[in-house]
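User: Could you go from structure to sequence for me? I need the amino acid at each position, not a summary. Structure tokens:
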């Protein structure tokens, strides 16, 4: 996300960050990824090596794609198949439903502002989360912006 929690514009990403894509690939490979129908259309195909699930009230399953009528059904299907970690990969609508269900957040904070953004990560209370990892990635020829990759785990009842 950008500095104002921007995540997308015109159904596409707003930055080219090779290191962020590598982190995404390494984390999700071999697992189930769940996305909204618009994010699926933006990616345009199933991502290899992962179980791809699309949440939609209009789209049915297709080759290499499972469809779910809502996020809870998608998570249930993944659990029933023995999945150990389900990755909710966006976009904005799906993130806003997912935030209360999530127990871990993997976020790249991009050091840029994007005025043309039309999609945002939901506002969330950092006090509910414990930061467990933080790593800076400087910009270079394959990464348009500096970014910091952070991992947060939801605090338990005892904080
Ligand atoms: N930076 C990032 O991390 C990141 C990640 C992913 C995506 N993005 C960007 O985010 C944007 C897309 O996000 P978006 O918010 O517009 O769309 P989205 O969340 O990807 O998809 C929205 C669609 O998901 C389905 N959906 C959502 N909630 C549902 C529910 N409760 N029950 C059933 N179906 C539901 C609906 O599909 P139907 O209309 O078919 O029912 C809805 O139109 C793009 O710009 C993309 O590039 C950014």
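Assistant: Here is the amino acid at each position, in order:
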């Amino acid at each position: 996300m950008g500095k104002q929690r921007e995540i997308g514009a015109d159904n596409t990403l707003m930055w080219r960050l090779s290191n962020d894509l590598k982190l995404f690939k390494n984390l999700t490979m071999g697992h189930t990824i769940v996305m909204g129908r618009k994010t699926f259309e933006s990616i345009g195909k199933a991502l290899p090596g992962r179980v791809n699930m699309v949440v939609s009230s209009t789209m049915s399953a297709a080759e290499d794609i499972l469809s779910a009528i809502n996020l809870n059904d998608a998570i249930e299907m993944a659990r029933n198949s023995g999945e150990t970690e389900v990755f909710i990969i966006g976009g904005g609508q799906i993130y806003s439903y997912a935030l209360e269900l999530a127990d871990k957040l993997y976020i790249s904070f991009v050091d840029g502002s994007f005025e043309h953004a039309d999609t945002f990560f939901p506002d969330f209370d950092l006090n509910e989360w414990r930061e467990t990892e933080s790593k800076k990635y400087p910009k270079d020829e394959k990464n348009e912006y500096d970014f910091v990759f952070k991992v947060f785990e939801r605090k338990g009842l005892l904080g």
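One structural detail worth keeping in mind: The beta strands are 6-8, 32-36, 51-55, 65-68, 86-88, 104-110, 119-120, 129-137, 147-154.
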